[in-house]
Amino acid sequence: MKKKCIALVILVLTFSQMPHAQTKAADSVIIRVGEGSKVIFAIKDKEDLETLKHYNFQALMEDMIARLENKDTSTHKKPSVEYLKDSVKTERQVTMIEPTEVTENWDDDTWDSHKHKSHHGRKTYHSINIDLGTNNYLSNGKFPDDTNELYSVRPWGSWFVGLNSIQRTRVSGKFFIEWGGGVSWYNFKFQNESTTMSKDDSGVIFSEDARDVTFIKSKLTAAYLNASLIPLLDFGGNRRKSSLFDGHGTDSFRIGIGPYAGYRIDSYAKQVYKEEGDKRKNRERDNFYLNNMRYGLRAQIGFNDIDLFISYDMNELFAAGKGPQLNAFSFGITL
Fold first, then answer.
1. Quick one: DSSP state of residue 25?
2. Which of 196, 209, 231, 330 is the one with CA 20 to 30 A from 101?
3. What is the pLDDT of residue 218?
4. pTM to 2 decimal places
5. Backbone angles phi, psi at 157, to 5 degrees
6. Nearest in space to 219 (alpha carbons), one of 277, 269, 293, 159
7. 73 and 148 co-located in one domain
8. Positive or negative: CA dihedral 37, 42, 46, 51
């Protein structure tokens, strides 16, 4: 490896002495080193060729060789202006070619500048994540279906949706913290389409609607404003979480678990039915003695651009003594 890197230095220095006319002929120049290594110069602005003439390639390559020998694959943090020759440092404080991340996998994707853009000194990346999945609840560790309760939930149609603004901060090496906030919706679609909800001073009441109509669905919806803090191990050491919308994966496995908390901002019960051939909807906004707070643990696991999550509320859905003892949970995919 050291011999290849020394050869790389020689070739780069040779390239820097090429006539200006040669560099004008192409947007990129590829210099192959040995059997499986290469150096790529990609020039988007021809004015950068003048900047290139003032680079101290010896200092740059000494840093690169030292990092490769130490198997340091983290992002290069030294500002590119540091590689200007002393005679022009004070005269040319310009933005130049940004060094890319150094990795041990010397393939074509490694050198793709669209995949590995360096941000000097940047430890935190922001992303907008969408959680899509299903939700249900447990009563003393069992599903209410076991006792045929009126509040038993249909898995299909009980959708969980979350919209989150997440910051991803590297703590050290492959250890990250994902933190942020967002809003989420529980949708509990009841097994019995004629289930109706009401309440009195003693608590929430689940009963069957006795009207002579064709019931289509009945559900309870609760919306929460949330905050989360998830310690995460990313074995690829990727600073930025990959996404299905990126068009490429980051070839890594990641896993994390951590706490979240939420505050209820809305809730309502909804019935849909047909009466004399007409489709009708009844929606009643009420707190139904739902707890204002929710808190629990979230686990997530991902590979390449696919992430799965599961969240479990450690406190009960309804206020103590005002409804059935239910702990809500959700699971699905993060986009």
1. T
2. 231
3. 98
4. 0.64
5. 110, -15
6. 269
7. no
8. negative
